[in-house]
């Protein structure tokens, strides 16, 4: 009987030891389960017209509050445009933009604000639409942001952005006020490393192709014999 009791005690000790060894693994498994899921957002347009001043404060500016501090009469609520702005303004290191048309002033301010914060911004756009009245491209270039464009007959018709090489923003939306406020459009915001990789590869391929050094309409330097 005493021998049986010792066996029971020994078994209990072994079981307790195994259980204690499994605790770190179990805690790690639970922690993985609690990790933030990759972002998957879908935005639909037209967007409600709302105040975005609180999102677009430049460094050193007095903050615009959500209600009384802001002088505008627009609703101070969330909208598809404000969600898009938040996704862009989350950038901390880099922002790649590949856009057919870019004339919306709020989105232009957001991109300039990121540039002021030290985020590396690169823009690819269409040569025909970058010169249209109201385009933000001139202001972005004036701010010191690199903008490269096509020089062929076809449109550079892409509409996507890559935030910190981690988040892809793409869809049917042109970054124009007309599209944002009047058109039925969609934008998908996703954290997916494979999709981000594919779009980043496309961006880098076009970036190299549109290198200004390769523009054929620039006069060629004469060769000195």
UniProtKB/TrEMBL annotation:
The keyword Metal-binding applies. Keywords: Differentiation, Endonuclease, Hydrolase, Lipid degradation, Lipid metabolism, Meiosis, Membrane, Metal-binding, Mitochondrion, Mitochondrion outer membrane, Nuclease, Spermatogenesis, Transmembrane, Transmembrane helix. One of its GO terms (biological process) is spermatogenesis. SUPFAM superfamilies: Phospholipase D/nuclease. It catalyses: a cardiolipin + H2O = a 1,2-diacyl-sn-glycero-3-phospho-(1'-sn-glycerol) + a 1,2-diacyl-sn-glycero-3-phosphate + H(+). It comes from the Eukaryota. InterPro entries: PLD-like_dom, PLD_domain, PLipase_D/transphosphatidylase. Residues 152-179 form the PLD phosphodiesterase domain. Pfam families: PLDc_2 (PF13091). Transmembrane segments: none annotated. It is a single-pass membrane protein. GO terms for molecular function: identical protein binding; metal ion binding; phospholipase D activity; RNA endonuclease activity producing 5'-phosphomonoesters, hydrolytic mechanism. SMART domains: PLDc (SM00155). GO terms for cellular component: mitochondrial outer membrane. It is found in: Mitochondrion outer membrane. The keyword Transit peptide does not apply. Homodimer. Interacts with MOV10L1. Interacts with MIGA1 and MIGA2; possibly facilitating homodimer formation. Interacts with GK2. Belongs to the phospholipase D family. MitoPLD/Zucchini subfamily. This is Mitochondrial cardiolipin hydrolase. It comes from Octodon degus (Degu).
């Amino acid at each position: 009987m005493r021998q049986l009791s010792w066996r029971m005690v020994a078994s209990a000790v072994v079981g307790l030891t195994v259980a204690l060894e499994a605790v770190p693994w179990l805690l790690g498994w639970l922690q993985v389960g609690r990790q933030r899921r990759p972002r998957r957002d879908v935005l639909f347009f037209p967007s409600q017209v709302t105040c975005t001043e609180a999102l677009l404060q430049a460094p050193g500016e007095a903050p615009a509050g959500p209600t009384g501090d802001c002088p505008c009469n627009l609703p101070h609520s969330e909208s598809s445009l404000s969600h898009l702005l938040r996704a862009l303004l989350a950038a901390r290191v880099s922002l790649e933009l590949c856009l057919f048309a870019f004339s919306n002033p709020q989105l232009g301010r957001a991109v300039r604000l990121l540039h002021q914060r030290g985020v590396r911004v690169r823009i690819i756009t269409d040569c025909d639409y970058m010169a249209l009245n109201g385009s933000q491209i001139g202001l972005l270039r004036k701010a010191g942001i690199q903008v490269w464009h096509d020089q062929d007959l076809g449109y550079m018709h892409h509409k996507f952005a890559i935030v910190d090489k981690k988040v892809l923003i793409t869809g049917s939306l042109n970054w124009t006020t007309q599209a944002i406020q009047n058109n039925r459009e969609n934008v998908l915001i996703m954290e997916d490393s494979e999709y981000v990789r594919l779009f980043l590869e496309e961006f880098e391929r076009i970036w190299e192709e549109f290198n200004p050094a390769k523009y054929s309409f620039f006069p060629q330097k004469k060769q000195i014999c």
